[in-house]
Queue: 2 jobs
Job 1
Amino acid sequence: MAMMVETQLERYTLETELGQTNWATLYRARRKTDGAPVIVKIVAPLFTTDEFFVRRFKQITEQVAGLEHPNIVRSYPAESEGNLLYLVQDEAASPTLERIIAAEGPFSPRRAEFIVAQIAYALDYAHQTAVMHGDLSAQQVTLGPEDRVLITDFGLAQTLYGANLAKNAYAGGAPVTLAPERAYGQGPSRSADLYSLGILCYQMLAKEPPFSGPSSMVLHAQAYRQPRPLHRVNPGIPIAVSETVGRMISKGVELRYNTGAEFARALGVACQRQKSLHSYENLMPLSEREQRRSLNPKALVQLASAMVISLAVISLALWAGYELGLNQALAGFAGPNRSNGLAAPVVSPLQPSGSLADQLTQATSIPTPPQLRSSTTVIGTPTSETFAASLSDTLLPPRTPTRDRLLPARTPTPTLTPTTQAASRSAGASPPTPAPSIPTSQGLLIFHNPTGHDLVIDLTGPTNTSVVVPPYGNQEFSLESGPYQAIMHTPTGDFIPSRTIAFDIAPGQIIERDYYSDFDPREFEQQ
């Protein structure tokens, strides 16, 4: 129930208390300069005692304030008055997605696709600036006229992880949309936000999330249980849509879509298909599969007719091939006699009189011509081609002699001599990599992340910035000249200890640092 409050701020008038979270109290307020309605979130005093949280809270809120997207609620940098630390956001007067699903759900695939596309593009825009939502749920999304989406509370989950109170379980996201890796204790990430988007799509199409109940049971299910296929919960959902959403809420990070836009495109294609993207027989009930396997009498008659026709065609082909091969064999035996003007008889195997052996004997019995009846004896030596032809299968076509076969022409491989290589380099074939350009009044810091974890780099000096560097990746910082202090830690504050290094940078100077720069073993022993 909303309550009236007496606490007032210098620039804002607090009107009504809307509720409390684990780390803040929410108020509906108005800006005194123009009377615009806003939401003020005053951080709990317990968190303001954590210096790490306060510093991270101010840096992240300043980074989120730079987000300008039609589907992201405008937020402003954190402010402080006395002992109060608070954040101001524009008010989204539209109802939350959770209320719309409860009143109008389940949504049609087309409507869900339209809403998912807006959320996906907003997430991709924020991820490009290293801002993760970390707590995306149906309560953080509002639907305005014509289903216009507005998302609130970007980046707030990033401020909690790494703080001492967050380690003591004071922080956490909505369990129904929390990714499995988040349930294991990891911090906000791009893949975790995309998993939450898949859960929201599932919830819109089924009117309920895949897991519900007490928080402990939901977190256990997110980590170890597989959700029911969407088309089993809502039979009106095409299997192709069910498969697309199922991939997005996979337990393995490598199985999900890489970006929100990729998921939105796949969902759009799936909504246009009425059948599955894959032919899975096990998705069909057993009784229906057995019924499809049984054949009716008409199908049996058609199958028998096809078999008879096939056997007739095969029999004719065998008969024609056999007779053609036998005629070629008889012609081959009678071949030498044609030069003497004698014709060898060709006997068909279908003649009833005589056996095949008698016919072959008659065909090979050649009378001696008168001109050869002398004392001269002619001895013929068969060639290799004739001998090979006599051993070949007469049912096959005659073989092409080996000497007549065409071999593919070989193209000589060009060899690049050292002289040619030098000439190609001198001709400018591979120009050298240009050095990075540095502004006149700035220096360049190149930071390397040699660890296997995401590193948050907090730079304090003439230029203040905070960036997440992926494992084994590099990050370049253009900094104003002067002394700097860099704090390096993981988003969760776990796995490896946080380190602090100091350095000076001059105009036009390029320096390189990494997590192990100025390493001192005693530093880790103290931690």
Job 2
Amino acid sequence: MSDLTPPSGEPEYLDSHAGEPITEPAAEPRGRRSRRPFFLAGGAVATLALAGGAAWAVLSFLSAGPDAAEALPASSTIAFASINLDPSGEQKIAALNTLKKFPGLKDKLDFDTADDVRKHLFEEIQKGGECPGVDYAQDVEPWLGDRMAVAAVDAGETNPSPVFVVQVTDQGKAEAGLEKLKSCDTSSDTGDTGVAFEDGWAVVAETQEIADTVVSQTKDGALSDDDTYKTSIDQAGDSGIVTLYAAPAAGERLGKVLEDQAAASPFGQAFPATALEQFKNFKGMAGVIRFRDGDLELEFEGDFTAMAYGLDMSTAGTAGVVQTLPADTVLALGLSLPDNYLPKLLDAIAPQVAPGKTGADLLAEAEQETGLNLPEDFEALTGKSIAVALSSDIDIEQLINTQDPSSLKLGIKVEGDAALANPVLDKLRAQIGSAASMLQSKDADGYFAVGPNSDYLAALLQDGKLGDSATFKDVVPHANDSSSVFFLDFDGPGNWLVEALKQAGAPAEVTDNVEPLSAFGVSGWLDGDISHVLVKLTTD
């Protein structure tokens, strides 16, 4: 992996903000002609910052300076995202060096590090014929600052208003430039687009009234000073290239939209009532994408209860069994489930998947179809912690096409009571007949393993060292606390993925771009009452 540590010895991180806020479908205000969403005078500068693709975004970082949240109101901002438009310094050089490991990106990064990324993005827009009459050097560069944000704001309209804020270095030139940028959208009338200036920021909205309202609300209290916002951003970890924020009001708004949709649906409840209630009690959420030491991380923190259908994941424990898998494991999925998980899940989703039925009804139907005693048999099979594993010593083509699974080195390892699980496995084997060999099982020392290959089951039951490997620790740093873990080792013994792709006849452009990848991990854990999700991609 690339060493991005500056001479001082202290790590310096890419740090910028981008993305799209969570918004509701906006109803067209009465008396206003329909037009496509138009922010920042035709959307040109929005596209300039956000539509350049992942390679462009990774080049951005937020250095010391104003936060775009300074230009948004604390009282009415529902969700927002911010970005720095002018990457510079050692981190940009390090990012470029890392990205150029990938041939598919290298050709798109054919400018040196002193160039202005904003200019290149704008030129890409012009290639599409979007802004033929606008000259970047004359009409944009003289006033465009380093920071911007896209937000959903409650400005007194029926639905949240989409708002764009951008830092400006010269208000007079910005007024002229924004006026000229209106020509980028010739498909509709954009004459009522509103622009308001305040303390080095331009606020752009669909109407002048909305833009003025946002400025007025911000004077009463900026989002950057809001305690909930500051706490959420801090809990998301180190700042990075992208930062997203959803205020507590976002959950209530989204819950109301889903509730209204359910009320209007002829099919009954369209979303679990438990989850709708959780949306109303939403406490906020923040997310950060950061680029560091050659790795790319996406971390979210906040209240994810609604996404879990209202289930209490705090009782799930940890997915510790995944750390006991063999060291040559290249793919693993570990999970620990809350107590009485299945009935609670069915209670939550019944209105959505089977209107008119209860969770108990679905449980009874599942018992009849499977012949299992539920939820007892389900809990016997999942134990305290369960992991699916795939060895690097496996032929991908065989995995996909084999008619004889007995040679496949894949399986499931469970921390649980084999005496309870074996009778359940016998029931399942009886039901699947000739495919029963897929459910061979072995047990030892508080674990049991299930799969098609007897030798691999024995290997699974040994005290493996996956959790001790540097690769695993790098992409799943919170494994001891995580209730869910996904791990994929791109290299593995013998650089298995690249070799497998070559054997499958993949073109060189694919294998060459896979070669720099090291590993990928996803993990979720609780820190007190704060939920965290970390997605991490590492390179060699």
